[in-house]
Design brief:
Elements (H helix, E strand, L loop, with lengths): L13 H30 L27 H5 L14 H20 L3 H23 L5 H15 L8 H26 L6 H34 L18 H23 L3
Helix pairs in contact: 1-3, 1-4, 3-4, 4-5, 4-8, 5-7, 6-7, 7-8
Length: about 270
């Protein structure tokens, strides 16, 4: 089964395609659950490689039955099995979002290396967004891992027509003008207008999008950021800087539709002239 605009590796039957999409959704839920735990441990200073998962309220270690993505939350009715405290709905919502990202990429690009490449990127953006929401900080490891992911696929020829040079041009075309604009804004406002982590993330996303789609991503991210700014509880989680605003989630969310449909949109838009 071929999807419009995709180049699947194999010509699959409808039944096999549905089965693989189901597995993709399950994989997305699993990675969403792991990403939630990884982000929480980063924010709370715990190692992701050591120690068992535990309730954030009572600290009781969680059993395997408590860790089934989405199903455990529904079965336990959103409460800890041991202390009865409510579990944040962010966990099942984030897991579902990660599954939707994985499935949408598979539908758009088929079961190809491109899907794998973008699923890895999507997972990294997912985790860094959760960390940024809670701490207003984007750890350097995430932009570095995303850049390494781009470089690895580019070097092994998994991206037809796309090279490291192509990516660097896209990244710098976003990073350099934005850096100049941010430095000017910092002088005018007398304070930091955009975090260094956001600038690094913008450069890395430019590797994947190129210049034209990168500009589209930036505009969309600003629109999403304005919506986030109106939501309660988003701003001011950084005690040292109450004005800090987590822009990473806006960039990550904007990257999703741009990577899926950016080329088609540009073709349609340029066709108007």
């Amino acid at each position: 089964m071929n999807f419009p605009g995709s180049s699947p590796m194999f010509d699959l039957s409808a039944a096999l395609t549905a089965y693989l999409l189901f597995l993709t959704a399950v994989l997305g839920l699993v990675f969403g659950s792991f990403g939630n735990a990884w982000a929480w441990r980063i924010v709370n200073g715990e190692s992701v490689a050591k120690g068992r998962s535990h309730c954030a309220t009572c600290g009781h270690p969680l059993s395997a039955a408590d860790l089934v993505p989405l199903a455990s939350f529904l079965f336990l009715r959103g409460r800890c099995r041991y202390c009865g405290e409510k579990i944040s709905p962010r966990y099942p919502l984030a897991e579902t979002l990660c599954a939707l990202v994985f499935v949408s990429l598979a539908l758009r690009f088929g079961f190809t290396p491109e899907t794998l490449r973008l699923c890895i990127l999507g997972f990294l953006l997912f985790v860094l967004s959760l960390v940024d929401l809670d701490s207003c900080v984007i750890p350097n490891r995430f932009p570095l891992l995303a850049a390494a992911n781009f470089a690895a696929f580019a070097l092994f020829g998994a991206q037809p027509g796309k090279t490291l040079l192509h990516g660097l041009i896209g990244g710098l075309s976003l990073f350099v003008p934005m850096l100049a604009l941010v430095m000017l804004a910092d002088r005018v406002l007398g304070r930091e207008s955009m975090g260094g982590g956001d600038l690094k993330l913008l450069f890395v996303l430019g590797l994947y999008t190129g210049a034209a789609r990168g500009l589209m991503l930036l505009i969309l991210a600003c629109c999403i950021g304005l919506v986030f700014a109106l939501l309660p509880g988003v701003r001011g989680k950084d005690a040292e800087n109450p004005r800090a605003f987590p822009f990473g989630p806006s960039l990550a969310l904007a990257a999703w539709p741009v990577l899926l449909f950016g080329d088609a949109f540009l073709t349609w838009y340029l066709g108007l002239f």
